[in-house]
Amino acid sequence: MTSTPATQDCRFCRIAAGLADPLIFENRSFVAAFDTNPVNPGHSLIIPRRHVVSLFDLNEMEQSDYFDAIQGTRQVIEATDMTDLYRNMLSRDDLRERPKGHIESVLKLPFLDNRPDAYTIGNNDGRAAGRSIDHLHVILLPRFHGDVQDPRGGIRNVIPDRAKYHK
């Protein structure tokens, strides 16, 4: 888990350089964009400008800017008209060739234009954790009452057979 040079074929390096998805937040170390495969309205990715693979590889300045990026992105989420955002995504030229099923599903959610009730903040730090792109990205996922049947346990549920704990 180390920092490697940025590459043109790294999707998140392209986003960080402003060459892909529109940025919704920037500070000196991070950028953020709405995920184009959203799970819930406002689903966002917070990406370091530097090509770094792991959260544990952030330098002191990046660590200092980390929570600012989370807070700034949350503020943008809560100020955004989600219906407008996802309708516009469906017609974005740069997404023309990409599947749009996630966007269409989010547009049908009954809580689409509600303010989030909570957030799940996560990072799949390593391939064994489920990371699919080797550039750190922190997921800021707005949560809504009723988005899952039983949210108790939250992130623990990534390993369902061992998620429940005894009282």
TrEMBL record:
Output this protein's name.
Answer: HIT family protein
Extract one GO molecular function annotation from the record. Answer: catalytic activity
Q: Name one Pfam family in it.
A: HIT
HIT domain ranges (all copies) = 11-150
Show the InterPro entries listed in the entry. AP-4-A_phosphorylase (IPR052908), HIT-like (IPR011146), HIT-like_sf (IPR036265)
Give the matching PANTHER family. AP-4-A PHOSPHORYLASE, HIT FAMILY HYDROLASE
